[in-house]
Amino acid sequence: MSTELAWSVERRADVHAALADATRLRIVDALAAGDMSSSELCGMLSVPTNLMAHHLKVLERAELLERGRSEGDRRRTYLRLVPGFEGKLLPRGGYAARRVVFVCSRNTARSQLAAAAWARRSTVPVVSAGTHPAERVHPGAVAAARRHRLPLRPRPPRGVDGLVRSGDLVIAVCDNAHEELPAEIERLHWSIPDPVRAGTDAAFDHALDLITDRIERIADTVASAADDPHS
User: Is 100 helix (H, G, I), strand (E, B) or coil?
Assistant: First the structure.
């Protein structure tokens, strides 16, 4: 993961401040669909030219907008969003991990799905475990992975005891696991509802959607760490 794209907390605060106005958010929304001139924005948003100039200046100072001269009418200037700025509003480079360890109570659904979704999204190695492992992966999890074209290779559920090593990033994907894990295991906690309780396709799909959203949010903040030969 490159750290050159990272924005500092101060930089992100400046961007959020620039966006803390309804009109400026409407400008960003409009430019997300396509490039426009300031006069076109004025007409679309019913904003006077002097007020539009102020809002554009704020967005330009925050380095969210850039201008380009028309190749047709060389007198006209078009405004466009700086590519990729929205992806920089979340923190990056926050964790260095040898592995990601997803933990739920039974290691039959949520942690197995999370490990498969992580492997598709990140190159950081991943494993899963349970605080009270069951005998087999729940068929509802396998079916949900199939519906979402997620390459899930179910592994026999295993316990978390003795699994976590130095350098691992532990993520509890259920409340029970988070509350049962010993305090000395530092971890993140994702409160994902247990789909096994409902047992429906919708419940498993919802759990996988929540997991996937969390992974998308955090994946770029986790960098691979070298193995510690002494651990």
Answer: strand
Q: Which amino acid is at 137?
A: V
Instruction: Give the residue ranges of DSSP H helices in 47-109.
Output: 49-61
Looking at residues 188-200, what average pLDDT do you find? 95
Residue 45 reports pLDDT greater than 70 = yes
Mean pLDDT check: name the lowest of 57-61, 74-78, 167-171. 74-78
CA distances from 9 to 14, 88, 89 (A): 9, 11, 9
The secondary structure element, H or E, covering residue 194 is none
Torsion of CA 196, 197, 199, 203, to 10 degrees: -80
User: Quick one: average pLDDT of 85-89?
Assistant: 69
Tokens of 181: 């894990």
Average pLDDT over every residue of 173-197: 94
Q: How many CA atoms lie within 13 A of 68 on its CB side?
A: 11
Q: Buried (b) or exposed (e) across 73-82, using 16+ Cβ within 10 A?
A: eeeeebbebe
Residues 35-41: what's their mean pLDDT? 92
Name the residue among 163, 98, 95 with its Cα closest to residue 124: 98
